[in-house]
Amino acid sequence: MPSDMADVSYAEFTDPRRFLLCDESVEDYEFRLGQLLADLRPANSLERRQVELIAQADLDIERQRRIISVYLQPSKATGPTQRAVVEWRHDTYMRSKHGDDWAGGAGGEADPEPVFGDFGATPAIASAYGANFGMLEFHYRAQSEAERRRRMAIGLLLQLQDRRARRAVPDAQVVEG
Amino acid sequence: MAAVGAHFRDLTGRRLEEICDADWDGATRAALELATREAHLDRAYAHHVSCQATEIDPDTLTMIGLLEDLLYCDDTLSCTKREAIRRAFRVEKFDVANVVGRKRLALRYLAEAQSKRDSALRVFLALGDPISRNEG
Question: What residue ranges do the domains of chain B occupy?
Answer without folding.
Answer: 2-128
